[in-house]
Amino acid sequence: MAGTPEQVSACAPCGPAVDVVPLEAGEAPELVLVFGRPIPPELPAPAVVWVLDGENAPAALRAGDRVVATRPGLPGAWRTMPLPVGDELFASARDESAPGRAVWLTPDCPRRHSYLERFEHSVELVEPPAGAAVAVNLHDSDQPAFEVRAARALAAGQLLVSETLAPSFGLEPGIDYLEARDLTDLFVTVENAARAPEAYAAVRARGRRKAEWFRSSRVVQRLVHDLRLESAAARTAP
User: How far is 194 from 191, CA to CA, in rounded Å?
Assistant: First the structure.
C-alpha cells in the first residue's frame, strides 16, 4: 500500500482474508493499493490508484494499473467508490454513551464556523476522539459529497447525522443514517439525536451493518477478483 501514513492506517485491510505485504519487504504482492498521490515508481505489481476529490487521473499509468475515482465523472476511471475503511476501525459493538453530546466529523473549517455562528446547540458538540453515540457530518463546502469519514463513523457504531451524501454509495437516508436536507434540518436532527440516541437504535444498527460494504478487506477481495477475471478474459480473447 502507498499513500500518506494517515491514509494507509485508515484504509488498510487486515485479517486472514488479505495478506498485506509491505512494499519494501521484497516479496511480490498480487496488487498494490495507492491512496492519492504521489504514486511510487517501479511498483512490483499492478496498482489500483484511488484518485481523491480535486485530483486528476495520473498521467502515466502502466498497462495493468487501474484508477478508482471517489466521485463520478472522472474520465478513464475503472471504478467509482470511496476510500475503503480500514478493518481496525470497525467496532463489533458500541457501548451506549450518555445522551447530550455529539462528535464532529467535519474538521475545523469556515463552513463549520459559519454554522456554529448561526446555530447554538444545547447539546455538547465535541471533537474526536471523545466518545459520543452521535456523529455529525457537515460538508466542507456547499457542494454535496460523500466523505469517507461518514463511513468510518458508521463502522465505529455511531449514529450518523449528515447532510445529504451524494453519491450515496448505497447508504439509505432514514434507514442507515439521519439525513439533514439543509442546515436548519441538521440543527434540529442533531439536537433530537443527541438528546435521545436510544430512540434511533435501529438506524444506528443498520448503519453499522451497511458499513461492512466499505470494509477494506472486503473491498480488496472484490478488486482482486475483478482483476483476475479481466486477466483471464484477456488471455482467452481472440
Answer: 5
Residues 115 and 66 in one domain: no
Q: How many domains does the chain have?
A: 2
The C-alpha atoms of residue 218 and residue 85 are separated, in whole angstroms, by 10
Residues 76 and 121 in one domain: no
- The pLDDT, as a whole number, for residue 7 is 87
* pLDDT value at residue 45: 85
Query: Which one has a higher pLDDT value, 2 or 77?
Result: 77
Same domain (yes/no): 154, 227: no
Tell me how far apart the alpha carbons of residues 172 and 178 are, in angstroms, rounded to a whole number: 9
pLDDT digits (tens, 9 = 90+) for 78-114: 999 999 999 999 987 666 666 899 999 999 999 999 9
Q: How far is CA 231 from the centre of its chain?
A: 28
170 exposure class (CB count in 10 Å sphere: 0-12, 13-18, 19+): exposed
Domain carrying residue 190: 91-213
Q: Are residues 149 and 131 in the same domain?
A: yes
Q: Which pTM does this prediction carry?
A: 0.91
Number of residues assigned to the chain: 238
Q: Which three cell numbers stand for residue 156?
A: 465505529
Shortest CA distance to 175 belongs to which of 197, 203, 195, 200?
203
